[in-house]
Specification:
alpha/beta, TIM Barrel, 4-stranded parallel beta sheet, 40% helix
Length: 257
Amino acid sequence: MNRRYRKTLIAGNWKMNKTASETKAFADELKTMLPKAKWCDILICAPFINIPAAQKAFKDCRVQVGAENLHFEASGAYTGEVSAAMLKDLGVKYVIIGHSERRQYWNDDDIIVNKKAKAAIEAGLYPIICVGESLEQRELGITKELIDLQVKTALAGIPAEKMRHVVIAYEPVWAIGTGRTATPEQANEVNCEIRTVIRKLYGARVARSVTILYGGSMNDKNAYELLAQPDIDGGLIGGAALKPGAFTTIINAANQE
């Protein structure tokens, strides 16, 4: 982490988990554990239907509530989808875009990710753009090339002055839900590559200001080592974000000196 130039963010991605009542119970427990240090921003990205309940449950603490996805069109005949304007109207600030599960199960390719990122920014939202490689791609030795392509495509058409609203999350598909985790050095190496791509696109000042998260099964056991790396500015947390105790441990790790 480098707090001199950029913010630290711990973002929980609940995926398709927790009812509204379970959301309140989680918030009540988490609020008793939250550390007093305020060196990192805290975010819970909840299922669409739970966003109002989460906002109500967290209204008296510093946990922000975000969304897990959006559609790139402003409105129309897209049954079951949610627009950026709808999220903005709810008071949402952050939205996850291009998560590996969206890419795998709903065919969110790089072009769609770019459309969603631009829609979010145009609405005044902060996109958390996910990039990452599969195990096969890593073993083929094309991680760098793939990450470069994903980042360049995702950011196409986004002006430099809007990059302060963008968060990137490195999300190695091979380390999500598999029990495998990138070493701190492996994770930092890819995050550093992402920052290099941003520097080539926008210059050094923009590159050092962009928050880049690690999203490959960060948990309460490995968070301290991962977050000690210079180019890992926080985490996009899956399973551990469903457990108040584990999530608090990760937040504490982000507050380390």
